[in-house]
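Its record is retained below.
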Amino acid sequence: MTTPRLLNKICIITGSAQGIGLATALKFAAEGATVIVCDVKQAGVDEAVAQCQALGATAEGFVMDVTQRPVVDAVVASVKAKYGRIDVLVNNAGITQDSSLKKMTIEQFDRVIDVNLRGVFHCSQAIADIMVAQGSGVILNASSIVGLYGNFGQTNYAATKFGVIGFTKTWSRELGPKGVRVNAVAPGFITTPMVAAMPEKVLADLSAKVHMRRLGKPEEIANLYAFLASDEASYINGEVIEVSGGISL
């Protein structure tokens, strides 16, 4: 029998009550990880934890807004105190508030920057000392093909996802010598609640642009996160891996 690739690894996943985050939590649970579910609504957190536990995993949840540093620090401290280490952080939490450049409000811009960029900084900085002290760890950042190529109406989102790539390249240099790997995943258009909110015609047009003629599944992103979090990816550091069905070709 094959040993689960994340056996006994303590893994924090932000934004893990739905979409790619939930799929990642369930994949990690199936791979033997102890899963720490973090999201902003108690009901969603409880449901995700229950689904992970149904797979036989140890799992617990925290209501955590990544923009609130004291809350982030408290969650990290609690996990460290209980389990003695933190092996993996998946910075998945993110939002969209789309508008064209001419119409975007300052509030729309600031909110997306706060969650998608500042939130990644908060969580990573809160955990970095722990990983450095234990001499090992993996930080995985959610970028996007929008961060690589831009997208109409997504000035704020594109800026954050491009910024996350900058985080990844910088932290891999700073933390790599300490035994901590940092990588980013850049999904294409995936069938999540966020994408499902787009008009049907837009979704149809997107599918037509993908050479595989379909949108991606959350599980297809989760599979890559699980690989990158595992020791199988022990020499992968500072990379941004696109998972888009070839839409950018």
Notes: The first strand starts at residue 10 and ends at 14. The CA atoms of residues 199 and 225 lie 29 Å apart. The chain has a mean pLDDT of 95.
